[in-house]
Amino acid sequence: MAILFVAACGTAKPPPPNAPHPTECAIAQVNWRAAEDDYDRPATIEALGSLESAIGKESSGQNAVAAKLDTLFRKPPSSVFLSRWTIDAAVRLRQLACAEQLGLVSPGEADQRYIDTINDIEDERAVVIDEMRRGAR
Fold first, then answer.
1. Looking only at Cα atoms, what is the longest distance across the chain?
2. Over the range 46-55, which residues count as b (16 or more CB within 10 Å of their CB) and which as e?
3. Is the pTM of this model over 0.85?
């Protein structure tokens, strides 16, 4: 059993011995306001698009997503409420980008999780659009 554990630990490359290793995530905190039901649907769709753009359709380097999320989350918060799901997705993306930035998740694993998140964002966007068509605020 110890052999399996050792093999599983070797999946991420350790940083070079002289390289500084960050110990804290430098990505800004998510400061958006959330609501369960009474949220601004057009603003939510815009925020989902911003999250999807931050991830991008293809990987552009280990810190690319982190830098884009940091820029997005440093913008002054809006006064509107976004869907709870959107805020939760933003927090999960920040956590994943931080884990990748700190070397806790391999770039390959992070890329797969980003792809999964893009799919989830597209599904949520469809739900919000459907709510708008049915006349929800």
1. 59
2. ebbebbbebb
3. no
Q: For residue 73, give the nearest of 32, 34, 42 by alpha carbon.
A: 32
What pLDDT shows up at residue 7?
39
For the stretch 16-68, pLDDT in tens is 555 555 678 989 999 999 999 899 999 999 999 999 999 986 555 667 899 99
Tell me the residue length of the chain: 137
* Residue 9 confidence (pLDDT): 43
